[in-house]
Amino acid sequence: MAQKERHKEERESEFVDKLVHINRVAKVVKGGRRFGFAALVVVGDQKGRVGFGHGKAREVPEAIRKATEAAKHEMIYVPLHSGRTLHHDIEGRHGAGRVLLRSAPAGTGIIAGGSMRAVFETLGVQDVVAKSLGSSNPYNMVRATFDALKRQLHPKAVSAQRGIKYSVLQARRQHLIGTEE
Predict the structure, then answer these.
(1) pTM of the entire structure?
(2) Burial letters 62-96, b for 16+ CB under 10 A, else e
(3) What is the pLDDT of residue 34?
(4) b/e string for 30-57 if b means 16 or more Cβ within 10 A?
(5) Rounded CA gap, 162 and 15, in Å?
(6) Which of 111, 109, 145, 101 is closest to 127 using CA atoms?
(7) Which of 43, 51, 101, 108 supports an S-S bond with 17, CB 3.0-4.6 Å?
(8) Which residues pair with 54 in a beta bridge?
(9) CB neighbours of residue 149 within 10 Å
(10) Number of neighbours of residue 150 by Cβ within 10 angstroms
(11) What is the mean pLDDT of residues 73-79?
(12) Range from 30-39, 92-101, 152-161, 170-179 carrying the lowest mean pLDDT
C-alpha cells in the first residue's frame, strides 16, 4: 500500500497549481450574513497539459481544494512548438470574453494579463503574446483561453488533413519565416 500512495503523491506533485481568483459571496439570514467563497484554480504539468476548476465552500482552503480537484479531472493536452510557444495564432471566445493568442520568437516571454498568464505558466509556454479583447471577468478569460488552446493544431494534423507531407509543410513554414526577416 505504501508504494501505491507514494506513486499517487509523485503523480500529484508533478502538477503546478495557480489560484486565479477568489470570490466572496454573502447570504443574508436572520442572524446576519453567511459568507461563502468561490475559487478559480488553474493546474498544469508545464509540459503541455493544463486544466481549470471552480470550487465553492464556506472556507477559502476548502474552496481551493475543490477547485484543484476539478481542474485535475478536466485537463487538456496542448501541442507546443519546440516546447516553448504555440504553433499558430488563434482567437478564442466564451461569453463576452475574447482573447487573441499569438506565437512568439524565443526570448519574448509571457506577455499576457493575469488570468491568461496563470494558464500559460502552468501550461509550460515560455514565449507568447496574448491580448484580452472582451470581458475582463477572470472566469470568461480563462474559458476563452481554453477555447483557443483546444483549437490549437499540430502541424502533423494539418498535413494529414490537407493530404501533404509534413516535411513539405515545414519547408513552407521555414520559407515564410525566412522572408519576414
Answers:
(1) 0.83
(2) ebbebbbebbbeeeeebebbeebbbbeebebbbee
(3) 92
(4) eeeeeeebbbbbbbbbbebbbbbbbbeb
(5) 36
(6) 109
(7) 43
(8) 40
(9) 23
(10) 12
(11) 89
(12) 170-179
Q: Which residues pair with 92 in a beta bridge?
A: 99
Distance CA(21)–CA(41), nearest Å, equals 7
Phi/psi of residue 149, nearest 5 degrees:
-65, -35
The DSSP secondary structure of 79-127, one letter per residue, reads --BTTTB-SS-EEEEETTEEEEEEE--TT--EE--HHHHHHHHHHT--S
Distance between CA atoms of 110 and 129, rounded to whole angstroms? Answer: 6
Q: C-alpha angle with apex 170: 168 to 175, nearest 5 degrees?
A: 95
Count CA within 13 A, CB hemisphere, residue 176.
6
Rounded Cα distance, 134 and 130, in Å: 12
pLDDT digits (tens, 9 = 90+) for 113-132: 888 999 999 998 889 999 99
